[in-house]
Amino acid sequence: MAYTYESYDVAVVGAGHAGCEAALACARLGMSTICFTVSIESIALMPCNPNIGGSSKGHLVREIDALGGQMGKVIDKTFIQSKMLNQSKGPAVHSLRAQADKSEYTKQMRLVMENEENLTLKQAEIVDILTEDGHVTGVVTHTGGIYPCRAVVLATGTYLRARCLCGETITYTGPNGLQAANHLTQALERLGIELVRFKTGTPARIDGRTIDYSQMTEQKGDEQLVPFSFTNRPGDIERDQVSCWLTYTNEKTHEIIRSNLDRSPLYAGVIEGTGPRYCPSIEDKIVKFADKDRHQVFIEPEGLYTNEMYIGGMSSSLPEDVQYQMYRSVKGLENARIVRNAYAIEYDCIPATQLKPSLEFKAIEGLFSGGQFNGSSGYEEAAAQGLIAGINAAMKLQGREPLILKRSEAYIGVLIDDLVTKETHEPYRMMTSRAEYRLLLRQDNADLRLTPIGHDIGLIDDERYNRLIEKSDQIQREIQRVKNVNIGAGHQVQELLEANGSTPLKTAATLAELIRRPELNYDVLAPIDPERPSLSKEVTDQVEINIKYEGYITRQLHQVEQFKKLESRKLPQDMDYSQIRGLRIEAQQKLNGIRPASVGQASRIAGVTPADISVLLIFMEQYRRGHQKDI
Amino acid sequence: MVKDTIAAISTGMTRSGIGKVRVSGSQAIEIVDRIYKSPGGKKHLRDAESHTIHYGYIYDGDVLIDEVLVLIMRAPKSYTTEDMVEIDCHGGVVVMKKILETVIKYGARPAQPGEFTKRAFLNGRIDLTQAEAVIDVINAKNDYALASSVKQLRGSVLEKIRHIRKNIIGSVAFIEAALDDPEHINADSFGEELKISVDENIRELQKLLDLADNGRMLKEGIKTVILGKPNAGKSSLLNALVGDERAIVTDIAGTTRDTLEESINVHGILLNVVDTAGIRHTQDVVEKIGVSKAKSSAKDADLIIYVVDGSTALDENDMEILEMIRDRKAIVLLNKIDLNLVTTKAILEEKTHHPIVEISAREEQGIDALEELLKNMFFDGNLSFNDQIYITNVRQKTAIADALESLKLVLQSIEDQMPEDFFSIDLMNAYETLGTMIGESAGEDLIDTIFSDFCMGK
């Protein structure tokens, strides 16, 4: 029997990392919001690796925070180890990664969700999306409840028609044995949405008491902590950290795997979904990189109140008996007891080329989606899309322009542009090499890039915004100052230079010129810079980066200028590209399929050539002049 | 940095009275000013008013290139509505090409096919009704450029560029894999190793650049076929023109069984010469293939050079060739004048209306006269081919020069002890620039290489 319940502005389907950010953003932007999940205990669950951040993913978390999202704040509260990766490399690739206490993470996010004004949580499986005239009007639960709403954000993660594979054993569940969502797929297909099947996997969890750590290398966290959230200072997040441990597979491990490959669902052809190349299962690694005699294995704690340890690097879908042999062949795991088996999971998701850059479906107004449902992988990628989908659902209902971050503005912009423009054949993971302007998109300046945008949107309050403006002014003033301060070749100066392994000055130089020398930095020059104002480390870090890498940064800024020219040329959404004479057939088909929002986006579609773009530009000019006459 | 001022030769590349090189874009006047000298040496084009003509000289540094008239048109009153400069120089392939190259060297980039017209249209200079015509121009020119830029590259050049690109992307993939997965892959002090391979790539690109200067990077020029009976001296002629022993020369009739190709630069005119097996009726299977190839090459040649063995009498094979070249553009060479002539110039003059040059390929006599004849035929317009070739060559050359520049920036970054992630930026620029040259876009190459070469794992 169907009942109609109270209506909401926005319904969010799923309460994983994408769903949480989407629901919180909508609620905070004043939308009455309801968030559905199959299990309230599993809000913001981390069913795979017990960490947040890492190379380029750390950037995403900082950006989420700079825009007013939640992930950074929750991980700052619940991490049990933290590291800044790539510290010996340039500032653009420094990336924060923290080990999370998984159950604490879930609890803290649940606390935020449950106490957010305008937000209702509901445990229910959504089985249908209601539409009228290509326009979302509500959602239906498995118990027949109809919830009228004006916008929907789909964030179903890996739950749609999920099945888990452990050797020959197949269970029809979502991650961690949770209930799968088996009905929504059909409803989506009825709405004309195309679905594909992707696969991912996770390693076993082992009882920590059965691991011999004395045979492994200890991996400690950093002493100097950096928070994910720009609202926290290092002092706010200090705590005792726990260690991770490093060990290796060996020839014996590989032999066990090789001789059991026929029992792997992947190699036996049972798995239909496409898996990611960047986190291959251990059987993939051994087949593909046959010449490597060992692979790293990271043993990572799942939390402070559990003995379960995550066996990083050894995800697998081999049968349980093979898993035992395989894990126990690794040094230090000889007596290991498996608490949870490794498994592969298959699920329905969409080619995100069906979405606009705002993450709204092109064909269905008011229907948005984010997260693994969009063909991505990773908690951080999911959260980033959830945040943008939530913001844009609210923008839509408020009659405001959608938030579309450019590739030159944020990793989030790169992520979403790639998803909606390129046809991905595997779960998409963020990588630093995907960001062509990465020198500008650093994790250290995410607030300078995005907090003003978050403030415009309405997720950042005035106080935080004003603090940022003050910081930004201080940085600019100090950059100007160090460029203008002249340092003479005096005795004290030469001594300081020599002490730091730097060649003495022949003539006077500016302070900026000295900062630029590889062996020097802003701090060591303090003794010869008596006029230096007292500034916070976050300000002086920015000054140093901007001065030291000025040449490279300026070049990227020039490239961005060029990039923006094509980006600003918008394309009408109702254009029939097959009517454009001079476009090659392949280009016509690709453009009709993807319907890019701008000429810039069109230029990134595989199969569209520079000559096609020229033709498109000519056509657009023709179109523009034609329409001017109409007015 | 993206260069947005474009340049191209806008007249045909034959010996017309004058040739025009056009430059358009915000820096057009400034760039030409850098290479222009007035007779008194005091005038600067940047001070010139719009629509004025200036007499003077074009210099590349201290080297005088040509005496010219320079026409200044300031925005918006020009074809493209941008600042435009037109350099009227003495016609002739070599001069025009040199001026174009100089303009590019001082900051412009070669125009894309149809780009002047495209700019004129986008800037509102061309009427709406002509939009379709504009698209046709762009497509036609682009099709040609695409076909020419890749297909005309010599196989060995293409190979080399592919090799260099593969090497570059391998290095970038290593750096990027290490950045993405620092706990599995370590790129510390990769700079030293990288320096060696970048140095090597720079040397290779430098060689290609020299090749481009000789016009020998492209395989197409004036498609020239050398015909003649077996042992008439075709291969010796080719050797004399090329200056090395590429074609096998023996006294045994029928040695050249396959067709050989060689590009020869004669006074700046590029001849793409096909040496063919001699034409005679043969039973030898291998040679038969060679002979039929020779006949088919001759069919689509721009120019046929027919070598007559003066030491023997004309026979039915000669008659067949003379018949074949009757309505074609051809030169008849009377070879072996160092021996006793059985067939003389007078005998040949009765049989053909084509110009006849007496030579001894073996003794390299008469080669100068042949070269002179070729040059005159070309400049008088009796001999022509698609002149876009030179433009293609300039475009290719610019791409190589830009890639070289990027690789030098990589060396600079290594020298400055920059962290490894900075190397990727310019390496990728070089990779992409070389890609445009051979018609390959970067796409997902990097990500694919990372995953295929490195075991990334969580």
Automatic annotation (TrEMBL), chain A:
Functional description taken from the UniProt entry: NAD-binding protein involved in the addition of a carboxymethylaminomethyl (cmnm) group at the wobble position (U34) of certain tRNAs, forming tRNA-cmnm(5)s(2)U34.
Official protein name in the record: tRNA uridine 5-carboxymethylaminomethyl modification enzyme MnmG
Flavoprotein recorded as keyword: yes
Keyword Glycosyltransferase: no
Chief place of localization: cytoplasm
GO BP term, example: tRNA methylation
Endpoints of the signal sequence: none
Source organism (scientific name): Catenibacillus scindens
Top-rank lineage group of the source organism: Bacteria
Chain residues that bind FAD: 14-19
Molecular function (Gene Ontology), one example: flavin adenine dinucleotide binding
Source species taxonomy: Bacteria, Bacillati, Bacillota, Clostridia, Lachnospirales
Binding annotation for NAD(+): 275-289
Family note: Belongs to the MnmG family.
Compartmental location: Cytoplasm
SMART domains assigned to the protein according to its UniProt record, in alphabetical order: GIDA_assoc_3
Co-factor requirement: FAD
Span of domain tRNA uridine 5-carboxymethylaminomethyl modification enzyme C-terminal subdomain: 547-618
Subunit note: Homodimer. Heterotetramer of two MnmE and two MnmG subunits.
GO CC term (a single one): cytosol
Keywords in alphabetical order: Cytoplasm, FAD, Flavoprotein, NAD, tRNA processing
Automatic annotation (TrEMBL), chain B:
Binding site for GTP: 231-236, 250-256, 275-278, 360-362
Cofactor or coenzyme needed: K(+)
Binding site for K(+): 231, 250, 252, 255
Superkingdom in the source lineage: Bacteria
InterPro entries, alphabetized: G_TrmE (IPR031168), GTP-bd (IPR006073), GTP-bd_TrmE_N (IPR018948), GTPase_MnmE (IPR004520), MnmE_dom2 (IPR027368), MnmE_helical (IPR025867), P-loop_NTPase (IPR027417), Small_GTP-bd (IPR005225)
EC number: 3.6.-.-
Cellular localization per UniProt: Cytoplasm
PROSITE patterns linked: G_TRME
UniProt-annotated binding residues for Mg(2+): 235, 256
GO annotations of cellular component type: cytosol
Cofactor, how bound (note): Binds 1 potassium ion per subunit.
Binding-site list for (6S)-5-formyl-5,6,7,8-tetrahydrofolate: 22, 86, 125, 458
Domain TrmE-type G positions: 221-379
GO molecular function: GTP binding; GTPase activity; identical protein binding; metal ion binding
Keyword Nucleus applies: no
Classification via Pfam families: MMR_HSR1, MnmE_helical, TrmE_N
GO biological process: tRNA methylation; tRNA wobble uridine modification
Keywords from the named record: Cytoplasm, GTP-binding, Hydrolase, Magnesium, Metal-binding, Nucleotide-binding, Potassium, tRNA processing
Subunit field text: Homodimer. Heterotetramer of two MnmE and two MnmG subunits.
HAMAP family in the record: GTPase_MnmE
Function: Exhibits a very high intrinsic GTPase hydrolysis rate. Involved in the addition of a carboxymethylaminomethyl (cmnm) group at the wobble position (U34) of certain tRNAs, forming tRNA-cmnm(5)s(2)U34.
Family affiliation: Belongs to the TRAFAC class TrmE-Era-EngA-EngB-Septin-like GTPase superfamily. TrmE GTPase family.
Annotated NCBIfam families: mnmE_trmE_thdF, small_GTP
Protein name: tRNA modification GTPase MnmE
Species for this entry: Catenibacillus scindens
Gene this protein is translated from: mnmE
